[in-house]
Amino acid sequence: MFQAFQQLISTFLPSLLLLFWSLATASVIVTISPIPVPQAFKDAVFLASCRGKLWHDKPAALGPLRDWAVPQAWFLHFYIVGSCCNAVVLLMYCLSSSPGSTSTHMPLLALLLMQLHLGRRALETAVLMRYPRGAVMHGIAYVFGISYYMVVPLSLLPSSWYRQQQWQQAAPLRQLWPAVQQQLAALAQPGALTALQAVGAAVFL
Q1: Is residue 11 helix, strand or coil?
Q2: pTM for this one?
Q3: Among 5, 72, 97, 128, which one is most buried in terms of CB atoms within 10 A?
Q4: Contact 163, 91 (CB under 8 A)
């Protein structure tokens, strides 16, 4: 049973991730284009893309969902969920990838930068942000935001990691800290990153 589940992951998860991003992109293109689609669809895409920041009215086309609102302070949930998901993916990647392989460096760098970004945004939202009393965002925006931050870390892994089922080669959890140290040391080696990658990481930070 477990082996069958692993086979499903390696076979379908990369395709499902591609489908998620394709549908998200296509939805936005259809919404901003003069293509005849139901107004409820356009309203839902707009609310999901603006994540509540531009929600000033209640689109009638959404029917019962037009009043579905959650506190805008729940933005913090996005970053908490994203941090947890990214941390699990990052640690799993460290345990299952060879630190000496140059193909490991780019996904590792992307996951590390994502972890720093999510942690920083979580702190900013919890400590610095002060939402007005009664500030809300639409429930569709909330659901999309949660799904977005769950999917992004999985999308940063190379498709070969799924096809080759590298998570099966993961070292035991007791070797986690040595594995992380080895990965970071390999990433810090001269020549591990190209000049463009190093500049990109610096700009991101």
Answers
A1: helix
A2: 0.83
A3: 97
A4: no
